[in-house]
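User: I'm preparing a small set of examples for a lab meeting where we compare how different chains pack in three dimensions. I only have the primary sequence for this one, and I'd like the structure in token form so I can line it up with the others. Please keep the answer compact; I'll paste it straight into my notes.
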Amino acid sequence: QGIRIGHWNVNRLTLDKFDQIKLFLLEKLGKPQLDVLLLNETFLKPNVPDTFFEVLGYSIYLRDRVNKSGGGVMAYTNECYTQN
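Assistant: Understood. Below is the structure token output for the 84-residue chain.
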């Protein structure tokens, strides 16, 4: 079946875009559509808590761009791949 991977250059992660991400990650029945979603150009700063962008069933990894404008990356991975 393989791993389903997606990528999106979000060019500033807003609440509207985050709502789209949640809908994209989870089908209507709440089942994951993707195994990994990579986002770049999030423009997030370290003062925004990681928990703000959590999606049920996914682990989240962030790397903010500190002391510079723009940049930043985020990855969502299906928890079935991150649990031991």
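A couple of notes for your slides: The chain has a mean pLDDT of 87. The beta strands are 5-9, 36-40, 58-63, 73-78.

User: Perfect, thanks.
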